[in-house]
Amino acid sequence: MTSRILVMPGDGVGPEICREAVRVLDVLAHDHGLDIELDEALVGGAAVDSAGDPLPEDSLAAAREADAILFGAIGGPKWDSQPRDKRPESGLLRLRSELGLFANLRPAILYSQLAHASSLKKEIVAGLDIMIVRELTGGIYFGKPAGQGTTDAGRREAWNTMRYDEDEIVRIGRRAFEIARARGGRLCSVDKANVLDVSQLWRDVMNELATAYPDVELSHMYVDNAAMQLVRAPKQFDTIVTTNLFGDILSDTAAMLTGSIGMLPSASLDAAGCGMYEPVHGSAPDIAGQGVANPLATILSVAMMLRYTLERGDLADKVETAVGAVLDRGLRTRDIMDDETQVASTQEMGGAIVDML
Ligand code: ATP
Ligand code: MG
């Protein structure tokens, strides 16, 4: 069956990096029997400029019909002074909630070839390979009641509610157990069950689910300890599952341990396995239009798309192997450069992956 892929390039470096990822999809379709149909839609600042809306109705309709979305990046200084509903970011938040993308997958991997790259920070951890599964549509960001007001004594006050029902925990838990099973077989659930009732429910449901996955070793960790362990000894982790708020913080922490923002992909999946795939980095307005952005985060997002939506793990492996082989050859964009390697443009890097495939 033909899979429909919608490309939403967005702003800044988004169009440049998506162009290279689309070349990868094209070569897989042409030479490796991948059955896809590609379409493109406006989102973010580009959509504000041409349609006055960061997520125009026809873009949302196209997104609903797609099996998978390849998303570039959105935003930039040009739109920072817009009212909130006309900000590029509100288009992305709306897309996530309209499509019910409740499972956010953030691998933190440092390719061994980059362990000594002089352009990367010194804190990087060679050989790191963690998958963080973050619940994306519930928890304190969405729980009711939420609001602000005034106390009887006349002081300003504000409140948010961390709320999960068991179905929400079951669906993210199942997804995490399945991912852990396909990886190293170890799942660490992160919560704050010593203080929060909602965390105790989270922990109970994870324990109940564990009986259906006897081949996965489940452990629990309080979030404060998890933050410490992630920095102290990050290689102890295989797959981590956690709530929206804790996952927001821990996934950025883990990303920084790799030091290579231009290399990190992500996926956000719905209940049926349809999803949106995008680089972790933003629109990088400081380098947009210069042809120097690293396209590998987006190309690795295509690999995740192949694995999690298109059910072509074989091709996902091929793409990831091609990325490793191109790094082995010494090709580097500016952000991952070191002294002995060859500097490649966005297009040269994409072309090298295409040639390798
Ligand atoms: P956002 O708020 O959209 O997340 P941000 O300001 O937090 O944006 P990015 O847009 O990700 O961050 O950029 C952070 C830094 O990393 C910038 O200096 C940018 O040039 C660099 N950067 C981001 N993506 C890439 C890439 N693909 N290749 C090279 N450098 C990148
Ligand atoms: Mg940011």
From TrEMBL:
Its EC number is 1.1.1.85. It comes from the Bacteria. GO terms for molecular function: 3-isopropylmalate dehydrogenase activity; magnesium ion binding; NAD binding. Its main location: cytoplasm. InterPro entries: IsoCit/isopropylmalate_DH_CS (IPR019818), IsoPropMal-DH-like_dom (IPR024084), Isopropylmalate_DH (IPR004429). Its cofactor is Mn(2+); Mg(2+). Residues 4-353 form the Isopropylmalate dehydrogenase-like domain. NAD(+) binds at residues 76-89, 282-294. Belongs to the isocitrate and isopropylmalate dehydrogenases family. LeuB type 1 subfamily. Catalyzes the oxidation of 3-carboxy-2-hydroxy-4-methylpentanoate (3-isopropylmalate) to 3-carboxy-4-methyl-2-oxopentanoate. The product decarboxylates to 4-methyl-2 oxopentanoate. This is 3-isopropylmalate dehydrogenase. It comes from Salinisphaera japonica YTM-1.
